[in-house]
Write a structure and sequence with these properties.
Helix 5 packs antiparallel against helix 6, helix 6 runs parallel beside helix 11 and helix 9 packs antiparallel against helix 10. It contains 11 helices and 2 strands, in the order H-H-H-H-H-H-H-E-E-H-H-H-H. With 351 residues, the chain is mainly α.
Length: 351
């Protein structure tokens, strides 16, 4: 029997979607398209669009697609953090039950929303009354409300993973797991980085082509020129994504390093003692009797060397090479391919 998810999404109506017997994907579409379409229609009553194409494929549609993605991302992140919280509970029963679950409160969302609006206002200036309707300010404000929900969930998830490294977890023996049972935290951070990867990929695609829709008339595709600032910004987003992957895991890395030092703290002195005894035994024993006298110490030395090597194999980060390759696949390779595609397209167009 599957436990029903307690994932919370914005608005609160989604939390009760099961009571209304509607699938989550339908709620995501309603949240993404219904308010934006309504607000855009009200704007067009004041400032009419340039034509049917301007009404059907406008800024509101693009923002609606992002909103649907944010709603799904919120649900995905919340679900993964619940699973991680359950795993932490199994590792240490003394940890509070909701230690990693995300507190989804309206006050937190509104605070982030206000910060976003203030930041955008400082960057681009306060909109003039004449552009409030033509620029779809209400639609953009609603978009930032959903974005604030996403940023709160995403940011708190990073914080929760970081705080998990400070919990009194009962680590697995290094003989069973080279990450001491902490690999799920690395996997969770990879999931967060994968969600973030949509931004540099989308930016690269948006910079690649420009679509102009006219009804009647069809679709006009224009290839954008390659600008150095676009390349720098794309690589900046990649570096930010890499940082967002590693930052939550710093406390987990510290736990792994402490565990390795603790294990080596008893192995290394013992290893050194055996070597000293072996050296003294060799110097005191005649060559003809040396083999039989030193065999026991040599066997013990071999055993301690093997234990020391096994301890050294404890990983410094809670992930393996496969996780790094997947991170590169979802975060680094697509934007680079997008930049190369733009270069090739521009080269062929000028041949």
């Amino acid at each position: 029997m599957h436990r029903r998810s307690t994932v919370m999404s914005w608005p609160s109506l989604v939390r009760h979607a099961s009571r209304l017997r509607l699938p989550f994907w339908l709620w995501a579409i309603i949240i993404g398209f219904a308010p934006t379409r309504l607000l855009a229609t009200l704007d067009y009553l004041v400032v009419p669009p340039g034509g049917p194409g301007g009404y059907l494929l406008d800024t509101a549609v693009v923002l609606s697609i992002f909103i649907v993605y944010f709603v799904y991302a919120i649900r995905f992140i919340s679900s993964r953090m619940e699973q991680l919280s359950d795993y932490v509970k199994r590792m240490s029963p003394d940890v509070p039950v909701d230690s990693l679950r995300i507190p989804f409160r309206a006050a937190n969302i509104l605070a982030v929303w206000v910060i976003l609006l203030v930041a955008i206002t400082l960057l681009f200036g306060f909109p003039s009354p004449t552009t409030v309707f033509s620029e779809h300010i209400a639609v953009i404000a609603y978009f930032f409300l959903i974005l604030a929900s996403f940023l709160w969930v995403y940011g708190y998830s990073m914080y929760a993973i970081h705080q998990a490294g400070k919990l009194p977890l009962r680590l697995k023996p290094f003989t069973e797991d080279r990450t001491l049972g902490l690999k799920p935290f690395g996997t969770a951070s990879l999931r967060l980085a994968s969600i973030y990867a949509v931004f540099p990929v989308t930016l690269t695609l948006l910079e690649l082509v420009t679509l102009n829709v006219e009804i009647p008339g069809g679709i006009t595709i224009t290839f954008a020129p390659l600008r150095l600032t676009d390349v720098i910004f794309s690589f900046g987003l990649i570096l930010a994504g890499i940082a967002l992957f590693f930052l939550p895991l710093l406390s987990i890395r510290k736990r792994l390093q402490e565990a390795k030092r603790q294990e080596l703290s008893w192995v290394t002195p013992r290893y050194t003692t055996i070597i000293q005894k072996l050296r003294e035994q060799i110097s005191k024993t005649p060559p003809e009797d040396r083999s039989s006298q030193t065999q026991a110490l040599a066997d013990e030395l071999t055993m301690m060397r093997q234990v020391q090597q096994d301890i050294q194999k404890i990983q410094s980060w809670p992930f393996d090479l496969g996780v790094v390759s997947r991170l590169a696949t979802v975060l680094v390779i697509p934007p680079i391919l997008g930049v190369l595609a733009r270069i090739l397209i521009l080269v062929f167009l000028h041949l």
